[in-house]
Structure to design on (239 residues):
């Protein structure tokens, strides 16, 4: 699937290793990038980055509505790998904030005219969604957001699914400030995300672990069947 170059791409965590690589990758193909950052000092942000920076804070996602309305494809890439294992902080940043932005972007997509093209949201959940990451807080928070994305994908009605296309990005370990011993380079990961997105309607998997390519599609297939059963059961006994 080709991504029209007139599209505007929004990237959270745009100041991080992968965010910078994604920005560079998409800009090299002619796309406009809006980068979302927690950095209050624009002077500290890298040159050659997004065309536009937007400052935001967890807990104040509702203030992003105007900026999000300009975006065609939103890549939710922000997150932390808290070495202090602060569960509440990990859940807030890795899961809760993502859920709030997802709901806000969904609201924006549903308010657009019928003639408008569908918006897309790509959510980086990580293979830690079901595989060990040697950090229980990170694993729990990523598992939570992963399940929410799967739930939304399967339970959205026809109108919601048409107006907002949901994709899940599942990444293995790559080099970053959070993971200096990662196997893959962020540049390689970004280029593969861009390439795979042309062919995959939902899962965008980039990992050196062959099990990831087996376990995640099977997991999604299981939940698809499970949710179809729930919808059938609910419809059958609600009449």
């Amino acid at each position: 699937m080709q991504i029209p170059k007139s599209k505007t791409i929004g990237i959270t965590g745009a100041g991080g290793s992968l965010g910078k690589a994604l920005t560079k990758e998409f800009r090299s193909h002619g796309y406009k990038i809006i980068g979302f950052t927690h950095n209050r000092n624009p002077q500290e942000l890298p040159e050659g980055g997004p065309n536009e920076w937007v400052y935001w804070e967890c807990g104040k996602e509702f203030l992003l509505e105007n900026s999000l309305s300009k975006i065609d494809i939103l890549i939710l890439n922000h997150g932390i790998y808290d070495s202090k294992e602060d569960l509440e902080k990990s859940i807030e940043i890795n899961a809760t904030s993502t859920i709030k932005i997802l709901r806000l972007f969904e609201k924006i997509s549903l308010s657009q005219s019928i003639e408008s093209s569908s918006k897309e949201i790509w959510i980086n959940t990580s293979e830690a969604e079901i595989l060990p990451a040697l950090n229980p807080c990170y694993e729990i928070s990523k598992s939570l957001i992963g399940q929410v994305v799967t739930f939304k994908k399967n339970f959205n009605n026809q109108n919601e699914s048409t107006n907002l296309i949901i994709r899940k990005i599942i990444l293995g370990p790559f080099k970053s400030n959070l993971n200096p011993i990662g196997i893959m380079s962020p540049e390689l990961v970004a280029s593969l995300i861009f390439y795979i997105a042309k062919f995959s309607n939902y899962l965008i998997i980039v990992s050196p672990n062959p099990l990831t390519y087996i376990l995640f599609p099977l997991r999604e297939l299981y939940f698809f069947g499970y949710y179809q059963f729930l919808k059938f059961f609910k419809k059958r006994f609600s009449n």
Q: What stands out?
A: The first strand starts at residue 8 and ends at 12. The radius of gyration is 18 Å.
